[in-house]
Write a structure and sequence with these properties.
Elements (H helix, E strand, L loop, with lengths): L50 H6 L1 H5 L2 H14 L13 H17 L8 E7 L6 E6 L2 H19 L15 H13 L4 E6 L3 H4 L2 H11 L3 H11 L3 E3 L2 E3 L12 H18 L3 E5 L2 E6 L2 H18 L10 E4 L8 E6 L2 E6 L1 H14 L8 H19 L5 H23 L2 H10 L4 H8 L5 H4 L3 H6 L2 H6 L5 H9 L1
Parallel strand pairs: 1-4
Antiparallel strand pairs: 1-2, 3-7, 3-8, 4-5, 6-7, 9-10
Helix pairs in contact: 3-5, 8-9, 8-10, 13-20, 15-16
């Protein structure tokens, strides 16, 4: 196994092509990319208009200078952690300027070998299990991004209108709105199918078969297959990747959609109403019996044709108001389907706020306010389509109490508390009485002592953002 090293002399080229080290880099603006490192092969400028010929020259389109530059800029913009070679995105441009032509030629010659991905595990939403991510090297990310940029427009013409995940111009909000439409049409029961460890269990042979139906340039199919079989490095241990599409690379979302598009087409052929976001699938029915029947009839296709597994413990057949989809749930009001935040999503949000407002995490008040602001903005922007005014009102009240508790603990000494209370406008005699209280931190945080001194306006001036305030901004 060849592992690249960080620095100018690193290379992901074949063993017989050595890296040129030590050459001075040209002083160019970053937006110029690295197009000067190799010649351009522009398919459109060669007047190739025949569709079959275009598909047979896909590799040249992928390696076109403009496409590679676009891929480089996307990878640079997304940043991300280094792969197994330790090279970060800052070292990427000098490396490509020096080795880009060799890299391109090795891919054209079929000699390029992707590096294994670096295994990273992150906690899942339930906090009990972990999600496995595979972090490719930054050079491999550029090549994967270049492949995705060329293949995506081809497959967008084939993808179902009922698929919303990892697709341009589509979002989770669009998927939720489509669910609302279906429920309003009378499809109030759902088959919520959970594909067990989907990204880890994709059958390579099946995926390559599906790819080959559309992609007639065998060199591109071979290159994609190399990425699928690149392997995984966990610590110092190498593992073959015989199945699965590693999450973490730019190509993985597209490949997952290409595979599941087979399921979409089968659902459409059967006339089912459904909404899919990545591997989250909801099939809608007008009765519970119909929903159960659809699951029973679809299971053989998923397991025997696509070689995927259904997790029957997590797969549900139930009334739409009792299921969770993308963090949301549904309810009916005045004859219309409305959206709210699922209780599990609310619990995770409270856990995150509780961690950021812990009295003993030692992150400092300014840093704490910044982290809370970023989290609140991201959370509200995602869930803003849900009905949540009352939820946010009570959440803010609880969060302010926790923030006040932090300040009270930081003041600690009686003299410090007396001084700070007077600074925040409490009368001299009352401040001394308050400073000598024997109540605990949490009880004091809900008392007039801090309600009068650390008022809402004071907390806002200290940089703290609250859910309700930002929600009103985004809904205005």
């Amino acid at each position: 196994m060849k592992v690249t090293r960080t620095g100018r002399n690193c290379s992901q080229l074949p063993a017989d092509e050595s890296c040129k080290g030590g050459s001075p880099q040209k002083n160019r603006a970053e937006l110029e990319g690295y197009a000067g490192a190799h010649d351009s092969v522009r398919i459109t400028e060669n007047n190739i208009t025949d569709a079959s010929r275009l598909r047979e020259t896909l590799l040249e389109q992928i390696l076109d200078a403009g496409n590679l530059n676009g891929a480089y800029k996307k990878v640079k913009r997304n940043k991300g952690a280094p792969g197994i070679d330790g090279m970060d995105v800052e070292a990427l441009r000098p490396y490509l300027m020096e080795n880009g032509a060799q890299l391109k030629q090795s891919i054209l010659d079929g000699k390029y070998r992707p590096n294994p991905v670096r295994r990273v595990e992150i906690p899942k939403e339930d906090g009990k299990k972990k999600r496995k991510l595979g972090i490719p090297t930054v050079v491999d990310r550029v090549v994967q991004q270049a492949i995705a940029q060329v293949l995506e427009p081809i497959y967008e013409e084939q993808f179902s209108d009922n698929s919303y995940g990892f697709r341009p111009g589509r979002s989770a909000h669009d998927a939720i709105r489509k669910c609302q439409e279906l429920v309003d049409e009378g499809y109030k029961y759902v088959t919520d199918i959970d594909l067990e460890k989907y990204f880890d269990t994709v059958n390579h042979s099946k995926l390559i078969e599906v790819l080959s139906r559309t992609i007639k340039d065998g060199r591109v199919v071979s290159l994609v297959h190399k990425y699928l079989r690149a392997g995984v490095l966990t610590g110092h241990s190498f593992e073959d990747s015989e199945t699965g599409v590693p999450q973490g690379g730019p190509l993985s979302p597209l490949l997952s959609n290409i595979m599941l598009n087979e399921l979409d087409k089968e659902l459409e052929r059967r006339g089912h109403r459904f909404v899919r976001y990545a591997d989250d699938l909801m099939i809608f029915s007008k009765s519970r019996k119909s929903a159960q029947r659809k699951l029973d009839n679809l299971r053989p296709f998923i397991e025997k044709k696509l070689f995927l597994r259904i997790n029957m413990d997590k797969t549900e057949v139930d009334y739409v108001g009792k299921v969770k989809f993308l963090g949301f749930s549904f309810y009916r009001r005045k004859g219309k389907t409305r959206v709210r935040i699922h209780p599990k999503s609310v619990a995770r949000m409270r856990d995150k706020v509780r961690a950021l407002t812990s009295r003993s995490n030692g992150i400092g008040n300014k840093n704490r306010a910044d982290k809370l602001r970023k989290y609140i903005m991201g959370w509200v922007n995602y869930f803003k389509i849900a009905d949540m005014k009352q939820l946010l009102h009570y959440t803010d009240k609880w969060m302010r109490r926790r923030i006040r508790m932090i300040f009270w603990k930081q003041w600690k000494r009686v003299r410090t508390r007396d001084l700070m209370l007077k600074l925040f406008g409490i009368h001299i005699q009352q401040a001394w009485e308050y400073a000598n209280t024997r109540k605990g931190y949490w009880r004091t945080s809900n008392s007039p002592i801090l309600a009068k001194s650390l008022r809402n306006e004071v907390l806002k001036k200290k940089g703290f953002l609250f859910f309700s305030d930002y929600y009103r901004q985004v809904k205005a």
